[in-house]
Amino acid sequence: MHASPSPPGRVSGRTPSPGRTPSPGWAPGRIPGRGRVGPALVAAGSVLALWYAVARSGVVAPGLLPTPRQTFAALADSARGGTLATDLAASLARAGQGFALGAALGGALGFGYLPRLSAAVTPLVSFLRPIPAIALVPLATAWFGIGESAKRLLIAYAVLLAVWLYVHDGVSRVPVTHLRAARSLGAPLYRRFTEVLLPAAAPALLAALRYGASVALLALVAAELGGADAGLAYRLQVDGQFLRVDRMFAGLLVLGLLGVGVDAALAAIGRRFVHWSAS
């Protein structure tokens, strides 16, 4: 007597949650990225050990390469004095507003899948892409002064170019037959966008936002070096003038951790809302 086959969708006695397709490597009860914590901690520990060894070896002058302990002490001192909170708030406001503006414009232009719009935008963006944001600092300062508007626009400019490239590439890879099939079935333009084009290009959009966030931090440094009274890059410049290398390393550490945190947050959002993507 043969056992009856299992119902469709049932594997090993478990039924997938309705409305969600398990992606490769996903399993119920498994925390995404949990297996990466151990290797990441080992890598961080190895870098700290190597950093300490080089700082103590005398290869670099002690005044030019602080130890990890000295760097963390300088970071704690900045936190107690309130300068870290002030600089972090100023930089986050500039980077966040510039990122939001640049990502919105870059995403809108990248999703312009109409042939004429794409043909008009592509040559212009291709011309601007080799021009870095730091090259526009003098021009932006001359036009808008040393206020916040120039800094936000510089960040938005850099993010726009980065986001457009990823989104435009993702949209161009969506099979045209899918859009034509939806159109032949009578789907209006907004439904073809929300139900065909947007889900297909969502992984590229997520990659664009993650890359754009890192570009926003790079442009933030260029923008704050153009004139500011607070900010992480501004503090790096001030500390560099007085050769406070331990404080400079502390500022670089904060910038790196900020980038890691933002990227991890966007990756978590992607796992939640773009769960159908294998990547």
N-to-C SSE string, H for helix and E for strand: HHHHHHHHHH
Question: How many domains, as an integer?
Answer: 1
Helix content: 55-70%
The CATH superfamily title:
MetI-like
Please tally the helical runs, counting DSSP H or I stretches of 4 or more residues.
10
Radius of gyration: 24 Å
The CATH architecture name reads Orthogonal Bundle
Largest sheet: none
Mean pLDDT: 81
Query: How many β-strand runs?
Result: 0
Structural classification? mainly alpha
At the first level of CATH, what is the class?
A: Mainly Alpha
Overall geometry = globular
- Outline the low-pLDDT stretches: 1-29
Walkthrough of the structure:
With 279 residues, the chain is mainly alpha-helical. Helix 2 crosses helix 10 (245-273) and helix 9 runs antiparallel to helix 10 (245-273). The two termini are 43 Å apart. It contains ten helices and no strands. The chain has a single domain (75-273), classed as MetI-like fold, CATH 1.10.3720. Mean pLDDT is 81; it is low at 1-29.
